[in-house]
Amino acid sequence: MPLDHRRVPGPEESQSPLLFVPSSAQDGEAPPAQEASRDPTALQPLFARVGLLSQAKGSAYVELDGGTKVLCAVAGPREAAGGGGGGGGEPRGRLVCEFRRAPFSGRGARSRPGEREPELSLALQEALEPAVRLARYPRAQLEVSALVLQDGGSALAAALCAAGLALADAGVELYDLVAACALCRPPSGGEWLLQPREAEERAAAARLTVALLPSLNQVAGLLGSGQGGAPDSWAQALRLALDGCQRLYPLLRQSLLRAAKRAATAEPSEEEDAAEAPAATTGT
Amino acid sequence: MAAAGGFRTVEPLEYYRRFLKENCRPDGRELGEFRTTTVNVGSITTADGSALVKLGNTTVICGIKAEFAVPPVDSSNKGYIVPNVDLPLLCSSRFRPGPPGEEAQAASQFMADVIENSQVVMKEDLCIVDGKLAWVLYCDMICLDYDGNLLDACMCAFLAALKNVQLPAVSINEETGLAEVNLKEKTPLTIRKEPVAASFILFDSLLIVDPTAEEEDLATGTVTIVTDEEGKLCAVHKPGGSTLTGAKLQDCISRAVTRHKEVKKLLDKLIKSKKAK
Amino acid sequence: MASVVLSEAEKVYIMHGVQEDLRVDGRSCEDYRCAEVETDVVSNTSGSARVKLGHTDILVGVKAEMGTPKLDKPNEGSLEFFVDCSANATPEFEGRGGEELGTEIANTLYRIFNNESSIDLKLLCINPREHCWVLYVDVLLLECGGNLFDAISLAVKAALFNTRIPKVRVLEDEGGREIELSDDPFDCIRLNVDNVPCIVTLSKIGHRHIVDATLQEEACSLASLLISVTSRGALTCMKKMGRGSLDPESIFEMMETGKRVGKLLHSSLQTVLDEEENLGTARKKVGFLG
After folding, report:
1. What ipTM was reported for this prediction?
2. Is domain C8-280 in CATH 3.40.50.880, yes or no?
3. Do residue B44 and residue A147 have CB atoms under 8 angstroms apart?
């Protein structure tokens, strides 16, 4: 590990204890029966909460049943970095996205704390751009940052859902919310599984993440890799993902409504507090 | 309503002073009152120990991962504890993306100093085989929401996460010389000392406890006192700022000791309820 | 990415043409430009290739070096990609301007080669856990004329086909293991590139999609789909790029087109590579002067 003078120094190299688990113990643990009994189109129960960070303009937290916990915050619109952005061209806003994992989020070794994931950040940006009305924010930039606290499978999909909710919470003009699903295909061939858990994702031969704008039925983002086989197999996976995203959409909308209701019931009491303050200032 | 908001933006100092005259603060607290503290342990299952602490709005999550490493050459019977405080973009608009800024570095160094001086966990306890294998505890504290008083929250999260850590049993295989890990047998760490931090700000010769981000901006100086469970002093952190008399410092220390009792009660209740499950 | 500024009238012209299956340079929607592929252009690499696809010019060099295998894959070698966007291609790439594009392309290449079937990495292993071959694939963008990903994947496949890794023997000694390089310079391992995929980028313009877009056509398209196809027609990677969104029906159509076009691409590339191989040393090298 190169010496990073900005952080407290640790040992040069370290290995995760999981590499040293004897193989006999590992075989006993892996339950192969789990694959057969799982319904491939089952969505994991999803918990979404909007508006929990006080310092961010808009924020959302999404938790999946498999343990994936993702927090997303939106800041802006701010003045775009780099001035007017190359003179002429389109005066569109910019979306700057960042996707990070906490060092303790992975099952294996600890990842370096400063490591960014440029590929997934770019995937996040490309999936969110069709949803945001950037033309309404000329020469401004919106900063979206997603942090994965625990990766229990389908992390990018959860981050996309959270980012869509956070943008809505921040009051950014959107064409539609973003609903995203992940799929994976086990190495033994066979069907695609929707919203895989961490163990299924790790052992998968092919993975796919799809982001959809549900009411417009437009695919906003698509990222997949692996030995998927013929285009028919990928097409089937895409159809499964679209169906899953449509099913997720009502859950996301409900969490936004709940947050709006909370904010509405909190406002009358805030008005009372603010009314007391001028009484204190004018009284003295 | 609107007048108060405007006054707050234009003359923040005067606005604050009006409250202090009435012996209270804009959020309704007394000068010596801490915000509501909530702690939640064990929520991150991929980490060996984790804790989430909310001090009012300030939220810090601490995750501890244990890995193997070769002990340092000059002290072959010691392991490592590596703290790291991260202030990402999402916790507040004042932090920019990129390598850790001053505040994050200062906080990491503070945590490292307290761990080293107070001997929270004896590094000798982390050694498995002298000179060959030792545990490294990477303690990553990520601030999710920054509303002042980062150090207290980090310290509390760190302590709670340490109490939650379960290390798997390790044995050395005689034939291959490699380590063998048994994930089914887990033991908690022996924690020798329990440091708890209490931060104060100095404003107009007044001592104010547990500042919010706004109050920190208005303050002329800060002090952080770290005490352990016997009421002894572990660390005093006063990075410049306005001066402090001896008597005021004594006040701070006694307030810090009371705070320690409050936090200890909270953590003990939490650990007991977790064990009972 | 290098871009051209187009007026609205030009964009409408291109779009209308594409609706009628007639592009600006006379091609149909599924035609590639004329491509020139040449291997073994750089002499001090283990393998190299140069691809000129219209105005896009890519040079790939592969160097084989000895390294240690990764901890979780002790029996395999590895591939490391690095993409350099040279300032020759477009002034936007001066200094660190091309870094973002370079990392994007490198990450896509990693993604494509990440699965086991693309290339057999077990061939690159010398001593499990201790020694293996690491192939450093360096891509140099000399000129940017649209459709970078396709050209780069063709060049990488050709360069890997051309790579010659020297054979080594492991001598078991009492003190340890020694590695001996064989004396014969022609005694080497060749890689099997039958399953190496090629990238096909389909750009959506209006209601139709086109293959091998030029810079002008890329400026008109809001969204494109990048797929990587093997010679048997299996897809190994799918990625949506661009600012716009895609209709699910168009994605299905694009996948079918991509598979068709990809198979043709593979067969033509393979014929060219086999021809070069057969000529052997009698081949006239054109290099950069032709």
Report:
1. 0.87
2. no
3. no
